[in-house]
C-alpha cells in the first residue's frame, strides 16, 4: 500500500529497537552479582495480583436498519476482563514489571486475535495482550526504562488535553483501557523534580469502535471514527468524508520524541512537555485526483499544566499547542481549567464521610488555519471538548458506599451526556457497581450519535 513502510523496513525497525534494549541492558549489573538469597521467579509469582471485572449492560433502544447502516444493537451485552500483574527485582536496581490482560465482549468484533506486535497497524484490541512489559534500571541520579509501560502527562481530573501519548482501547468507550506505550525513557532526577526523555519508536494508535458497533452511532457510511488518544466519554468523534469518496487509512509508522519536565513545589505540582512526531488527530488527505486517505500529520506539540492545593480545594489547568508540518492541519491550543473540592466538615454534619464535586471547562483556540491543498478535511470535527463543561459529584456516605452523578455539555453543538453511578465496596477486594447513562443532541454531534445508546449496567470488580 502506498505510504506504508515495507516489511523489510519494519523488520529493521524492530531489530533496531530490540538491539537498543540489549545494548542498554548489557551495562546493567548481572543477576549473578545480586544477593544469593534472591529468587526473582519466586518473588514474581508470589507477588502477583489478579483483578477481574464483570459487567452486564442493558440497551433499551435499537437502530433503524438500512443497507447503509448495519449496527450490532443487541439489547443485552456481557463484558469481562481479567488482569494479572507482578514485578520482581532481577538485580540491584533492575526491576521487571509485567501486566497481562485477557478480555471478552458480547459486542461484535470488539476483540480479535492475541498479542499485537509493537508496530501493529490493525485497528482492533486483542483478546490477550500486555498492558505492561518493562525493565527499569534505577541508579542514584537517573533511571532507564525499556518496553511497554504507562506514559502519563496529566494533572486534571475529568479531561486532559495534554495526556495524549498513551494508547487506549476505546472500542467500548464506557470501559476504556489504558494499554501503555512502547518506549525507551531516560529519567534524570533533579532533587524533587524529574526530566524525562522518551523515544516512542512505534506509531501506535488507540482502537476505535468498528463500523457495526453501536458506538459509531447513526453516522452514515462516510463517517470514519478516529483512533486518537482522546479521553473516553468524548462522544463518537470522527470525520465525514467528501460525498462519494473512497477513503483508505494510511499508517506511516513514524517515531515520536518526547521531553517532559515534572516539578514539585509547596502545594504545587506542574509539568512542561515538548514532542515531535505524529500529531493527535486524523485528517482526510487528497494526495492525488480521486484518492483520499485518513492519516495523522506530523506535528510539534507543546504542553504545560499545574495543580495548586489549598486545604480541601484544588485548582488545576492544562494547555496543549499543536503546530502541524506543512500546514496539513489547523494549528490550535486546547485547554482545560477546573477545580476539585473535598468537603468533609459539612458532610459530617449530615452523617456523611465526604462530598467531592469536580467542575472543568474545556475549550479550544484555533491559531492557524489549515493551508494545504492536499487536505480537504481537517481534524476539527474529530476534536472533542472544544467548548464544553464537564462535572462530577461524588457523595460518600461511608467508606463502603459512593453515589456519583456526572456529565458533559458541549455548548457549541448542544449535545450532552449524563451519568449516574453507585459503588458499594463491602471489603478491600470487592466492589459492586451500577451505572446508567443518557445521551442527547443532534444526530451529527458527538453525543447525539449515541442518542440510541442510553444504557444501564451492573457489575463487579474483584481483586485476588
Question: What do these coordinates show?
Answer:
It contains three helices and 25 strands. The protein is mainly beta and 464 residues long. It has an 18-stranded antiparallel barrel. It has a three-stranded mixed sheet with strand order 12-16-15, with no helix packed on it.
Please describe the structure with a list of short key phrases separated by commas or semicolons.
18-stranded antiparallel β-barrel, mainly beta, globular, 464 residues, 25 strands
Strand content: over 45%
The global form is: globular
Kindly report how far apart the N and C termini lie. 46 Å
* Class per helix and strand makeup: mainly beta
If you average the pLDDT, what whole number results? 88
Number of strands: 25
Sketch the major β-sheet: 18 strands, antiparallel, barrel
Q: Give the low-pLDDT segments.
A: 15-34
Fold topology:
Blueprint: H1 7-26, H2 40-46, E1 49-58, E2 76-91, E3 94-105, E4 128-138, E5 142-149, E6 168-169, E7 177-178, E8 181-190, E9 193-200, E10 223-225, E11 238-240, E12 247-249, E13 256-265, E14 268-278, E15 283-288, E16 291-295, E17 298-310, E18 313-324, E19 331-341, H3 345-349, E20 354-368, E21 387-398, E22 401-410, E23 416-427, E24 430-440, E25 455-463
Parallel strand pairs: 12-16
Antiparallel strand pairs: 1-2, 1-25, 2-3, 3-4, 4-5, 5-8, 6-7, 8-9, 9-13, 10-11, 13-14, 14-17, 15-16, 17-18, 18-19, 19-20, 20-21, 21-22, 22-23, 23-24, 24-25
Amino acid at each position: 500500500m502506498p505510504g506504508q513502510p515495507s516489511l523489510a523496513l519494519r523488520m529493521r525497525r524492530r531489530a533496531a529497537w530490540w538491539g537498543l534494549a540489549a545494548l542498554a541492558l548489557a551495562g546493567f549489573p548481572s543477576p549473578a552479582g545480586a544477593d544469593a538469597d534472591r529468587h526473582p521467579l519466586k518473588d514474581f509469582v508470589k507477588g502477583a495480583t489478579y483483578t477481574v471485572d464483570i459487567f452486564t449492560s442493558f440497551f433499551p433502544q435499537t437502530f433503524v436498519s438500512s443497507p447503509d447502516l448495519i449496527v450490532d444493537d443487541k439489547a443485552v451485552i456481557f463484558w469481562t476482563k481479567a488482569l494479572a500483574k507482578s514485578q520482581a527485582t532481577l538485580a540491584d536496581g533492575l526491576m521487571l514489571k509485567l501486566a497481562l490482560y485477557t478480555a471478552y465482549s458480547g459486542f461484535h468484533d470488539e476483540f480479535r486475535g492475541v498479542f499485537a506486535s509493537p508496530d501493529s497497524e490493525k485497528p482492533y484490541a486483542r483478546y490477550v495482550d500486555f498492558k505492561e512489559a518493562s525493565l527499569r534500571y534505577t541508579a542514584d541520579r537517573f533511571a532507564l526504562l525499556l518496553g511497554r509501560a504507562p506514559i502519563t502527562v496529566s494533572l486534571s481530573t475529568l479531561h486532559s488535553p495534554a495526556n495524549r501519548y498513551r494508547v487506549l482501547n476505546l472500542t467500548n468507550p464506557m470501559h476504556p483501557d489504558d494499554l501503555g506505550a512502547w518506549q525507551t525513557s531516560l529519567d534524570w532526577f533533579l532533587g524533587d523534580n524529574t526530566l524525562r526523555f522518551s523515544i516512542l519508536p512505534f506509531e501506535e494508535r488507540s482502537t476505535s469502535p468498528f463500523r457495526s458497533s453501536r458506538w459509531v452511532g447513526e453516522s452514515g457510511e462516510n463517517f470514519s471514527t478516529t483512533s486518537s488518544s482522546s479521553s473516553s466519554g468524548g462522544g463518537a468523534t470522527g470525520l465525514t468524508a467528501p460525498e462519494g469518496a473512497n477513503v483508505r487509512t494510511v499508517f506511516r509508522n513514524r517515531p515520536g520524541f518526547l521531553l517532559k519536565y515534572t516539578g514539585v513545589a509547596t502545594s504545587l505540582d506542574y509539568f512542561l512537555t515538548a514532542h515531535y512526531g505524529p500529531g493527535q488527530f486524523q485528517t482526510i488527505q487528497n494526495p492525488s485526483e480521486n484518492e483520499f486517505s485518513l492519516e495523522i500529520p506530523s506535528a510539534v506539540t507543546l504542553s504545560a499544566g499545574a495543580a495548586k492545593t489549598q486545604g480541601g480545594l484544588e485548582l488545576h489547568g492544562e494547555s496543549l499547542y499543536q503546530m502541524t508540518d506543512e500546514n496539513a492541519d489547523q494549528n490550535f491550543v486546547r485547554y482545560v481549567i477546573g477545580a476539585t473540592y473535598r468537603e468533609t466538615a459539612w458532610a459530617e454534619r449530615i452523617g456523611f464521610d465526604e462530598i467531592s464535586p469536580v467542575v472543568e471547562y474545556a475549550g479550544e483556540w484555533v491559531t492557524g488555519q489549515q493551508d494545504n491543498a492536499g487536505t480537504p478535511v481537517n481534524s476539527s470535527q474529530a476534536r472533542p471538548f472544544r467548548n464544553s463543561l464537564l462535572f462530577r459529584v461524588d457523595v460518600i456516605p461511608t467508606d463502603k458506599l459512593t453515589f456519583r452523578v456526572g456529565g458533559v455539555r458541549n455548548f457549541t453543538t448542544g449535545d450532552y451526556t449524563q451519568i449516574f453511578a453507585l459503588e458499594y465496596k463491602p471489603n478491600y477486594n470487592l466492589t459492586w457497581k451500577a451505572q446508567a447513562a443518557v445521551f442527547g443532541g443532534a444526530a451529527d454531534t458527538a453525543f447525539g450519535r449515541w442518542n440510541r445508546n442510553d444504557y444501564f449496567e451492573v457489575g463487579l470488580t474483584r481483586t485476588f
